[in-house]
Amino acid sequence: MQFIVRTGIAAALAVGTLAAVVAPASAVVADGAHAVSGAHAVAANPKTIKPAAYNQARSILANAGSQTAAKSHPVHGKDDVPVSYGTSLLAAARDEFRHTDRNLPAKQKKSDMSIPHYNAIHSAAKTMGIDRW
């Protein structure tokens, strides 16, 4: 009986040690991406975006009804703009759309906004190459 218990404990320790040794090696990710257990890999946002992409995304959001996007000024005279311009625009439009659509039935919403607003946000984000905002 004691032999079985000692063997079981030894096996558990061996598996635990092996897991501790193998886990860090398997968690190594190239190119600075972050490893997240159980989640999809998300690419990092670019550092800058082109003014034409920002202006097009701004137009998409303004046409979808974002007053914030409509009031923002188009970018001109610059080669690149910081990605924060795009993420701020997306976040403001997202919050605005969620507020506007708060009384819609749940079956007509996706991510707490109407499906057309959701599609506009994601279209604008894709235009600028932004994955997280």
Unreliably modeled segments? 17-38
Radius of gyration over alpha carbons?
A: 24 Å
Individual helix count: 5
- Class by alpha and beta content: mainly alpha
Any overview of this molecule?
By secondary structure, this protein is mostly helical. The chain is 56% helix and 6% strand. The chain is built from 5 helices and 4 strands; from the N terminus they run H-E-H-H-E-H-E-E-H. The chain has helices spanning 2-26, 51-63, 67-71, 83-100, 115-128, and strands at 48-49, 81-82, 109-110, 113-114. Strand 3 (109-110) and strand 4 (113-114) form a beta hairpin. The longest helix is centred in the N-terminal third of the chain and has 25 residues, at 2-26. It starts with a helix and ends in a 5-residue tail after the last helix.
List keywords for this structure.
two-stranded antiparallel sheet, mainly alpha, two-stranded antiparallel ribbon, 133 residues, 4 strands, single chain
Task: Briefly summarize what is shown.
56% of the residues lie in helices and 6% in strands. The protein is mainly alpha-helical and 133 residues long.
